[in-house]
Amino acid sequence: MTALNAKVLIVEDEEKIAVLLQDYLQHAGMDCVCLANGMEVVPWLNANQTDLIILDLMLPGRDGLVICQEIRSFSSVPIIILTARVDMVDRICGLNSGADDYICKPFAPEEVVARAKAVLRRVEPIAVVPSPESGVVLDPDRIMAYVNGHSVALTMVEFNLLQLLITSQGRILSRSQIMEQLYDDRRTVNDRTIDCHIKKLRKKLDDADPTANFVHSVYGVGYRFDPTL
Q: Which class would CATH give 3-123?
Protein backbone atom coordinates (compact mmCIF):
# COMPACT_ATOMS: atom_id res chain seq x y z
CA MET A 1 0.00 0.00 0.00
CA THR A 2 1.30 3.46 -0.94
CA ALA A 3 0.05 6.99 -0.39
CA LEU A 4 -0.97 7.20 -4.07
CA ASN A 5 -3.88 4.79 -3.64
CA ALA A 6 -4.45 4.69 0.11
CA LYS A 7 -7.86 5.18 1.64
CA VAL A 8 -7.87 7.22 4.84
CA LEU A 9 -10.65 7.54 7.41
CA ILE A 10 -10.49 10.91 9.21
CA VAL A 11 -12.43 10.99 12.49
CA GLU A 12 -12.53 14.63 13.60
CA ASP A 13 -15.47 16.65 14.90
CA GLU A 14 -13.96 20.08 14.19
CA GLU A 15 -15.07 20.69 10.60
CA LYS A 16 -12.27 23.13 9.74
CA ILE A 17 -9.60 20.65 10.85
CA ALA A 18 -11.30 17.75 9.06
CA VAL A 19 -11.58 19.70 5.80
CA LEU A 20 -7.98 20.90 6.08
CA LEU A 21 -6.67 17.37 6.62
CA GLN A 22 -8.81 16.03 3.80
CA ASP A 23 -7.51 18.68 1.38
CA TYR A 24 -3.85 18.02 2.21
CA LEU A 25 -4.15 14.23 2.19
CA GLN A 26 -6.08 14.17 -1.08
CA HIS A 27 -3.49 16.48 -2.62
CA ALA A 28 -0.92 13.83 -1.62
CA GLY A 29 -2.91 11.22 -3.56
CA MET A 30 -4.99 9.68 -0.79
CA ASP A 31 -8.74 9.05 -0.85
CA CYS A 32 -10.39 10.39 2.30
CA VAL A 33 -13.65 9.83 4.17
CA CYS A 34 -14.57 12.02 7.15
CA LEU A 35 -16.66 11.16 10.21
CA ALA A 36 -17.49 13.58 13.03
CA ASN A 37 -19.16 11.42 15.69
CA GLY A 38 -17.47 8.67 17.67
CA MET A 39 -20.56 6.46 17.49
CA GLU A 40 -20.23 6.22 13.70
CA VAL A 41 -16.71 4.82 13.53
CA VAL A 42 -17.06 1.10 14.27
CA PRO A 43 -20.26 0.67 12.21
CA TRP A 44 -18.53 2.39 9.28
CA LEU A 45 -15.51 0.10 9.59
CA ASN A 46 -17.76 -2.95 9.70
CA ALA A 47 -19.16 -1.93 6.31
CA ASN A 48 -16.08 -0.44 4.65
CA GLN A 49 -12.34 -0.94 4.28
CA THR A 50 -9.64 1.61 4.93
CA ASP A 51 -5.83 1.62 4.94
CA LEU A 52 -5.31 4.22 7.68
CA ILE A 53 -7.35 5.89 10.41
CA ILE A 54 -6.62 9.38 11.71
CA LEU A 55 -8.52 9.51 14.99
CA ASP A 56 -9.20 12.47 17.24
CA LEU A 57 -9.45 11.56 20.91
CA MET A 58 -12.06 14.09 22.06
CA LEU A 59 -15.14 13.20 20.05
CA PRO A 60 -18.88 13.57 20.58
CA GLY A 61 -20.66 10.32 21.24
CA ARG A 62 -17.64 8.22 22.18
CA ASP A 63 -14.10 8.70 23.44
CA GLY A 64 -11.32 8.13 20.91
CA LEU A 65 -9.30 5.85 23.21
CA VAL A 66 -12.29 3.53 23.64
CA ILE A 67 -12.79 3.51 19.87
CA CYS A 68 -9.13 2.68 19.33
CA GLN A 69 -9.31 -0.23 21.77
CA GLU A 70 -12.41 -1.65 20.08
CA ILE A 71 -10.89 -1.35 16.61
CA ARG A 72 -7.89 -3.32 17.83
CA SER A 73 -10.20 -6.15 18.88
CA PHE A 74 -11.00 -6.90 15.24
CA SER A 75 -8.56 -5.00 13.00
CA SER A 76 -4.85 -4.19 12.70
CA VAL A 77 -5.41 -1.17 10.44
CA PRO A 78 -2.85 1.55 11.30
CA ILE A 79 -4.17 4.31 13.56
CA ILE A 80 -2.72 7.78 14.06
CA ILE A 81 -4.18 9.61 17.04
CA LEU A 82 -4.78 13.36 17.06
CA THR A 83 -4.80 14.80 20.53
CA ALA A 84 -4.79 18.09 22.38
CA ARG A 85 -3.58 16.19 25.45
CA VAL A 86 0.13 16.87 25.57
CA ASP A 87 1.10 15.02 28.76
CA MET A 88 3.33 12.00 28.23
CA VAL A 89 0.94 9.78 30.20
CA ASP A 90 -1.82 10.57 27.69
CA ARG A 91 0.44 9.66 24.80
CA ILE A 92 1.38 6.38 26.47
CA CYS A 93 -2.31 5.65 27.01
CA GLY A 94 -2.88 6.18 23.31
CA LEU A 95 -0.14 3.73 22.38
CA ASN A 96 -1.40 1.24 24.95
CA SER A 97 -4.82 1.45 23.32
CA GLY A 98 -3.34 0.25 20.05
CA ALA A 99 -2.36 3.41 18.18
CA ASP A 100 0.64 3.30 15.86
CA ASP A 101 1.50 6.98 16.15
CA TYR A 102 0.20 10.23 17.66
CA ILE A 103 0.20 13.89 16.70
CA CYS A 104 -0.37 16.68 19.22
CA LYS A 105 -2.57 19.67 18.43
CA PRO A 106 -1.92 22.26 17.15
CA PHE A 107 -0.10 20.70 14.20
CA ALA A 108 0.97 21.56 10.68
CA PRO A 109 -1.07 19.63 8.07
CA GLU A 110 2.19 18.87 6.27
CA GLU A 111 3.27 16.91 9.36
CA VAL A 112 0.11 14.81 9.26
CA VAL A 113 0.74 14.01 5.58
CA ALA A 114 4.35 13.04 6.36
CA ARG A 115 3.28 10.83 9.29
CA ALA A 116 0.56 9.21 7.17
CA LYS A 117 3.06 8.42 4.41
CA ALA A 118 5.51 7.01 6.95
CA VAL A 119 2.88 4.70 8.46
CA LEU A 120 1.73 3.56 5.02
CA ARG A 121 5.32 2.79 4.04
CA ARG A 122 5.56 0.51 7.07
CA VAL A 123 2.44 -1.30 5.86
CA GLU A 124 3.90 -2.08 2.42
CA PRO A 125 4.18 -5.84 1.81
CA ILE A 126 7.37 -7.48 3.02
CA ALA A 127 8.56 -11.05 2.81
CA VAL A 128 7.25 -13.61 5.26
CA VAL A 129 9.94 -14.27 7.83
CA PRO A 130 9.79 -17.84 9.12
CA SER A 131 11.86 -18.77 12.12
CA PRO A 132 11.20 -22.51 12.52
CA GLU A 133 13.84 -22.93 15.19
CA SER A 134 11.86 -20.58 17.42
CA GLY A 135 8.43 -21.63 16.25
CA VAL A 136 7.62 -18.14 14.94
CA VAL A 137 6.28 -17.29 11.48
CA LEU A 138 5.31 -13.77 10.42
CA ASP A 139 2.49 -13.23 7.93
CA PRO A 140 2.67 -9.67 6.49
CA ASP A 141 -0.54 -10.03 4.48
CA ARG A 142 -2.57 -10.47 7.66
CA ILE A 143 -0.15 -8.59 9.94
CA MET A 144 -0.04 -11.61 12.22
CA ALA A 145 2.48 -13.86 13.89
CA TYR A 146 2.12 -17.59 14.44
CA VAL A 147 3.82 -18.73 17.63
CA ASN A 148 4.14 -22.49 17.87
CA GLY A 149 0.95 -22.72 15.83
CA HIS A 150 -0.95 -20.07 17.81
CA SER A 151 -2.07 -16.97 15.88
CA VAL A 152 -1.27 -13.50 17.23
CA ALA A 153 -2.87 -10.37 15.77
CA LEU A 154 -0.43 -7.44 15.81
CA THR A 155 -0.44 -3.74 15.06
CA MET A 156 1.85 -2.69 12.23
CA VAL A 157 4.41 -1.30 14.67
CA GLU A 158 4.36 -4.51 16.72
CA PHE A 159 4.73 -6.60 13.57
CA ASN A 160 7.73 -4.59 12.37
CA LEU A 161 9.23 -4.64 15.85
CA LEU A 162 8.95 -8.43 16.09
CA GLN A 163 10.40 -8.83 12.61
CA LEU A 164 13.33 -6.60 13.53
CA LEU A 165 14.02 -8.59 16.68
CA ILE A 166 13.79 -11.93 14.87
CA THR A 167 16.11 -10.87 12.05
CA SER A 168 18.57 -9.69 14.72
CA GLN A 169 18.17 -12.91 16.73
CA GLY A 170 20.65 -13.22 19.59
CA ARG A 171 21.91 -9.65 19.10
CA ILE A 172 21.09 -6.92 21.60
CA LEU A 173 19.30 -3.94 20.05
CA SER A 174 19.38 -0.66 21.93
CA ARG A 175 16.28 1.49 22.09
CA SER A 176 17.97 3.99 19.78
CA GLN A 177 18.62 1.27 17.20
CA ILE A 178 15.00 0.16 17.38
CA MET A 179 13.79 3.75 16.97
CA GLU A 180 15.99 4.27 13.93
CA GLN A 181 14.62 1.12 12.29
CA LEU A 182 10.95 1.61 13.08
CA TYR A 183 10.49 5.37 12.73
CA ASP A 184 11.50 7.80 10.01
CA ASP A 185 11.35 10.73 12.43
CA ARG A 186 12.92 9.89 15.81
CA ARG A 187 11.38 13.03 17.31
CA THR A 188 8.04 11.20 17.43
CA VAL A 189 9.18 8.61 19.95
CA ASN A 190 11.32 8.15 23.02
CA ASP A 191 12.57 5.29 25.19
CA ARG A 192 9.22 4.93 26.96
CA THR A 193 7.45 4.55 23.62
CA ILE A 194 9.70 1.62 22.68
CA ASP A 195 9.24 0.08 26.14
CA CYS A 196 5.47 0.39 25.70
CA HIS A 197 5.53 -1.45 22.35
CA ILE A 198 7.79 -4.18 23.79
CA LYS A 199 5.48 -4.66 26.77
CA LYS A 200 2.43 -5.04 24.53
CA LEU A 201 4.25 -7.40 22.17
CA ARG A 202 5.41 -9.60 25.04
CA LYS A 203 1.88 -9.82 26.44
CA LYS A 204 0.43 -10.87 23.09
CA LEU A 205 3.09 -13.55 22.64
CA ASP A 206 2.58 -14.78 26.20
CA ASP A 207 -1.21 -14.86 25.78
CA ALA A 208 -0.78 -17.01 22.66
CA ASP A 209 1.79 -19.35 24.22
CA PRO A 210 3.02 -18.88 27.82
CA THR A 211 6.16 -20.87 26.97
CA ALA A 212 7.14 -18.38 24.24
CA ASN A 213 9.53 -16.32 26.34
CA PHE A 214 11.39 -14.93 23.34
CA VAL A 215 11.85 -11.19 23.91
CA HIS A 216 14.36 -10.48 26.65
CA SER A 217 15.39 -7.26 28.39
CA VAL A 218 19.07 -6.53 28.85
CA TYR A 219 19.19 -4.10 31.74
CA GLY A 220 20.53 -0.69 30.77
CA VAL A 221 21.17 -1.76 27.17
CA GLY A 222 18.06 -2.82 25.26
CA TYR A 223 16.28 -5.92 24.00
CA ARG A 224 17.01 -9.14 22.13
CA PHE A 225 15.09 -12.02 20.64
CA ASP A 226 16.41 -15.40 21.78
CA PRO A 227 14.21 -18.51 21.98
CA THR A 228 17.00 -20.52 23.62
CA LEU A 229 16.99 -18.61 26.93
A: alpha beta
